Amino acid sequence: MAPLTPSPTVGTVRRKPNQTPWRLRSALSLDDFERRARRHLPLSMFGYVSGGVETNSSLRGNGEAFQTITFRPRILRDVSARSQKTNLFGKTYEVPFGVAPMGFSAMVAYDGDIALAKGAAGSGTFAICSAASLTPLERVAREAGSRWFQAYVPGDESRIVALLERVAAAGFDHLVVTADVPITGNRENNARNGFDAPFRVTPQLIWQGATHPRWTIGTLGRELFNRGMPHFENMESVQGPPLFSRDLVRSTIARDKLNWEHLKIIRERWRGKLILKGVLDPEDAKLAQKFGCDGIIVSNHGGRQLDGALPSIVALPAIRDAVPDMIVMLDSGIRRGTDVLKAIMLGADFVFVGRPFLFAAATDGEAGVRHAMSILREEIDRDMALLGVVAPHELR
Length: 396
Ligand code: FNR
Prior knowledge:
Shape: globular
CATH architecture: Alpha-Beta Barrel
CATH class: Alpha Beta
Distance between the termini: 13 Å
CATH superfamily: Aldolase class I
CATH topology: TIM Barrel
Bound molecules: ligand FNR
Number of domains: 1
Number of strands: 9
C-alpha cells in the first residue's frame, strides 16, 4: 500500500485574501464554524449536530485524546515540495480528508447534502452520502458526482439486496456499512431541545423558528417550498416515511439483528469497494478483513452512540497492527491539520470530518464548505513544513 504520490509542483497552498468571501473572513479555524452556526441555527438543530450522548464523555474524549499526542519535528530539511495528494482505492484526492456521512443535513443547511458533496468535489475530495439523508441518493450522485454511499443496513436479507441494487444503479461504487448503530444512542439533548422522532410542531419549536428567521426562511422554508415535505430517502430501496410520520420510529427497526452473516451477504452481492464504519476493536478489524471488506473506518460515531466509548484515535494503533495491509480510515474529533497528521502518523490512510463541514454548509452553503476545507488544507500544509515532511504519509 503506497497511499501518497508527492508532487513537486504543489508547494504552499495559501489562499489569496480576496478569494475568501467577506462573510467568511472571520472563520479562521474549523471551530469558528460551530460558533457561527450556534447563532444561526435554532437550538434543536444546533444541538442535534453538536451533541453527543448522555454525559458527552465520548464526544469530549475525542477532542482530548488528540491533545495528548505530540510530535517530534525534524529540522533543516528541504520541505518546499509539499503535497497532500492522497491515493485511496486507486483514486487520487487533493487532500487526505473527506466529509463523514451525516443524516438530516438538508434540515440543517439548505440542500445540505448537495452543498457538502459539491463543496468537497470543488476542493478535490469527496463527501459520503448518508443513509439518513433527506435527499434521494440518485440526486446526490447525478448532481454532485458522489460515488460513496453509507448504508444503515436492515437486518433482513431481502431488504438488503433491494437496497444494494438501488445504490449500484445510481452509480455508487463505494459502500460504507455503518455498524455501530444497532439502535440509536441516547441523545438526551435532542429530546430536551425539542428535536425528537417523530417530529411534532411544539410551542418550543415554533419559538425557536421565530427567533432564527434566517434559518426558518432560508433553510426550512426554501426546502419545503422547493422540495416539499422531507422524507428519509435512502434508508431502504424505496422512499421512507415523511419526518412527521409515526412510522418514522418503526422504519429503523431490525437493524439490531444485523450481524457478520449479513456482511457476508453484502460482500457476495456488492461488486464495488466495501467499507465497514464504526470499528474500534482490533478483533473486529480482523473480522472485517476476513469477511472481505476492502477498508474500515475507525470511529466512535463522533461520540453519538455509546457514552464512554474509546476515542478512535486511541483505538487506531492496535487496529493498524491487526490489519497492516488493509485501508484504515478514521473519523471522530478531527478539528485541526495537526489532528489529521496525528491520525496519519498513527496509521490512518485517510480521515473524515463531520460536524464542522455541516456547520459551514449551514451558514454559507457550498462556499462555506470550500472555505472550511481550505482552512484545513492550509493547516496541514503549514504543519507538514514545521514537521519537516513533504507528504503526510512520510510521518509513518
Ligand atoms: C453523523 N454521523 C453519521 N454516521 C453515519 O454513519 N450515518 C449517518 O447518517 C450519520 N449521521 C450523522 C449526523 C450528524 C449531524 C453528525 C454530527 C454525525 C457520524 C459521522 O459520520 C461521523 O462519524 C462523526 O460525525 C465524526 O465525528 P466529528 O468529525 O463530527 O467529530
